[in-house]
């Protein structure tokens, strides 16, 4: 067995495979299929200060090699999380990471302060890239100045590792990554979904209630991989890569391009056992290539 | 009830009419309990251009043989390719998903209304409800005689009624035009329905007006089927609920349908 462990700052992950926010609930929803303690981590459903109903149905459109979603951060709010969900996960041996969202900087601060109090939450993923909400979300992640403002404000109240989730809907994602690194981000995760659209030609209507939504799945993998590679060149902090990862080979490609860890998302919808298959597949790859640690392949792309 | 991802063996694919097929799947181990209204999410690998699984409701279960069957009606590319699978093929299935219908009391007289692929759970209820046949009425609607599936294997379980839009089988019109529906609705204690939304809404409206218990099974499009994508939501009196995990069966009093 190869050493699969990686770390972000002082936070140890037993392997580099995490489940992506919005694709695994709070972990318990996939516990029938997956021993959560065998995952590197679980990035839980996007959480906001107040409950959100999310967008109207229809929220999903299947597309070639992928799908659009427009869920709009439906969640029961952070207080419900603390009262009802946190007690059920705090004894599971994995890294449960809260995906933190806000419409305003004040929201992000209030939420981060509450999460900072939770001993068994070792990190947050600061989401400045949700494309499906009218206020906040991606708006913070598409300019260096606004991204920096959020990260700076949250950094002041949150002491544990902070992973900042970046939007790919920008001209230069590496610049944004550098900007948030400068404000104290401990890691960046990318990519969130690409803004897309689906039309029903027969009804001459948009498929999604919100008209546009976020594209995920293998359709975006080459772009995500390119962005992870660019960002890994530009920053010193660890990069968490995601975007269309369906199997171990996909995950290894992201690691080679410079990701310290990966998140598996849309693949879970098709088969929730895929994340653990990826853990095994990475181990097989390392053994086959005579690497003793996964850390040896991170960013080891041969030019 | 634990949900699993399993590769099941297709042991039979029987064409029932021009666009309906019955697929019988065989598990290796004992089946979990599966109740009427529950569904499976099927990976259709042979349709390489299809990305997501497709949900199908369960038609019948044979626990002894470790088999269950699906009624597959061709609606789009996924269901069409699924009907080309042959006995001996393996199919990846996530199951059992969702919640079933509330089973009737022993004294209840029930009306089961099915249309399209919604016929499947109605037939499964007729088999599992445990009521004497005179207390079970099954009302099935389709466009024409050729669109109805043969339900003769079920006919000892209840009184069957048919409608067709062209009058080629049973009474002419929609299910809501049938004489038993128009004249005897108030005599039923519980109404269960699955099928196209306009049909279910029409039934729900009349059931609500008559004050009759009514459950509907919804078919909102979904990605996962087990409550993580949050795409299949239906508006209810207590906010958005996932059709896959909170449904697919809902009591009409919990829905916000404008009926």
Number of strands of chain B: 15
Mean pLDDT over the residues of chain B: 97
Helix/strand order of chain A: EEEEEEHEHEHEHEEEEEHEHEHH
CATH level-4 homologous superfamily of the largest domain in chain B: Nucleotide-binding domain of ferredoxin-NADP reductase (FNR) module
Helix content of chain A: 25-40%
Reported CATH architecture of chain A = Alpha-Beta Barrel
Q: How many domains of chain B?
A: 2
Segments of chain A where pLDDT lies below 50 for 5+ residues?
A: none
The proportion of residues in beta strands of chain B is 25-35%
Report on this structure.
The complex is a heterodimer of chains A (303) and B (259). Chain A is an alpha/beta fold. Chain A has a single domain (6-56, 65-195, 213-296), classed as TIM Barrel. Chain A has helices spanning 78-89, 105-116, 144-155, 173-182, 221-234, 248-256, 266-270, 274-288; strands at residues 6-8, 11-13, 17-19, 41-43, 60-63, 66-69, 95-100, 124-127, 162-165, 187-190, 194-197, 199-200, 205-206, 212-216, 239-241, 259-264. Chain B is α/β, with parallel strands linked by helices and 259 residues long. Chain B has two domains: 4-97, Elongation Factor Tu (Ef-tu), domain 3 (Beta Barrel); 110-254, Nucleotide-binding domain of ferredoxin-NADP reductase (FNR) module (Rossmann fold). Helices cover 14% and strands 34% of the residues of chain B. A seven-stranded mixed β-sheet of chain B has the order 10-9-8-7-11-12-15, sandwiched between helices. In chain B, strands 1-2-5-4-3-6 form a six-stranded antiparallel beta barrel. Chain B starts with a strand and ends in an 8-residue tail after the last strand. The mean pLDDT of chain B is 97. Chain B: GO terms for molecular function: 2 iron, 2 sulfur cluster binding; flavin adenine dinucleotide binding; metal ion binding; oxidoreductase activity.
């Amino acid at each position: 067995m190869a050493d699969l462990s990686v770390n972000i700052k002082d936070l140890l992950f037993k392997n580099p495979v995490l489940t992506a926010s919005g694709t695994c609930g709070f972990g318990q929803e996939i516990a029938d299929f997956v021993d959560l303690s065998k995952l590197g981590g679980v990035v839980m459903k996007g959480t906001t200060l107040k409950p959100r109903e999310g967008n109207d149905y229809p929220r999903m459109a299947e597309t070639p090699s992928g799908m659009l979603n427009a869920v709009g951060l439906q969640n029961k709010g952070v207080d419900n999380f603390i009262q009802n969900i946190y007690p059920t996960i705090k004894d599971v041996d994995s890294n449960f990471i809260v995906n933190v969202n806000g419409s305003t900087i004040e929201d992000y601060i209030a939420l981060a302060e509450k999460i900072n109090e939770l001993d068994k939450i070792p990190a947050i993923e600061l989401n400045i890239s949700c494309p499906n909400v009218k206020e906040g979300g991606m708006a913070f992640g598409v300019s260096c100045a606004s991204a920096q403002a959020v990260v700076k404000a949250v950094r002041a109240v949150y002491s544990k590792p902070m992973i900042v989730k970046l939007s790919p809907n920008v001209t230069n994602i590496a610049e944004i990554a550098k900007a948030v690194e400068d404000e104290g981000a401990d890691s960046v995760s990318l990519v969130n979904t690409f803004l897309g659209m689906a039309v029903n030609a027969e009804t001459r209507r948009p498929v999604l209630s919100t008209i546009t939504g976020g594209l995920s799945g293998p359709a975006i993998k080459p772009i995500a991989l390119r962005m992870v590679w660019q960002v890994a060149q530009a920053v010193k902090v660890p990069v968490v890569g995601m975007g269309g990862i369906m199997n171990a080979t996909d995950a290894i490609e992201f690691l080679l391009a410079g990701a310290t860890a990966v998140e598996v998302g849309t693949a879970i919808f098709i088969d929730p056992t895929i994340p653990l298959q990826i853990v095994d597949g990475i181990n097989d790859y390392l053994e086959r290539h005579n690497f003793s640690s996964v850390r040896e392949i991170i960013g080891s792309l041969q030019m | 009830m634990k949900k699993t991802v399993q590769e099941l063996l297709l042991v039979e694919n029987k064409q029932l009419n021009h666009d309906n097929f019955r697929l019988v799947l065989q598990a290796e181990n004992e089946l979990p309990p599966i109740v009427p209204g529950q569904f499976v999410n099927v990976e259709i690998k042979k349709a390489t251009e299809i990305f997501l699984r497709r949900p199908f409701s369960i038609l019948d279960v044979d626990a002894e043989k470790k088999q269950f069957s699906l009624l597959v009606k061709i609606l789009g590319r996924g269901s069409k390719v699924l009907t080309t699978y042959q006995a001996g093929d393996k199919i990846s299935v996530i199951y059992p998903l969702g919640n079933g219908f509330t089973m009737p009391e022993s004294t209840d007289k029930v009306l089961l209304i099915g249309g399209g692929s919604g016929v499947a759970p109605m037939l499964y209820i007729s088999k599992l409800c445990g009521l004497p046949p005179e207390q079970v009425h099954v009302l099935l609607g389709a466009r024409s005689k050729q669109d109805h599936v043969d339900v003769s294997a079920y006919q000892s379980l209840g009184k069957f009624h048919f409608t067709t839009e062209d009058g080629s089988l049973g009474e002419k019109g929609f299910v809501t035009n049938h004489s038993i529906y128009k004249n005897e609705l108030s005599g039923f204690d519980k109404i269960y329905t699955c099928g196209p939304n306009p049909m279910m809404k029409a039934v729900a409206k009349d059931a609500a007006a008559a004050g009759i218990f009514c459950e509907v099974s919804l078919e909102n499009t979904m990605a996962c089927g087990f409550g993580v994508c949050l795409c299949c939501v239906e508006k209810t009196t207590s906010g958005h609920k996932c059709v896959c995990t909170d449904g697919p069966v809902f009591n009409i009093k919990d829905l916000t349908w404008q009926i």
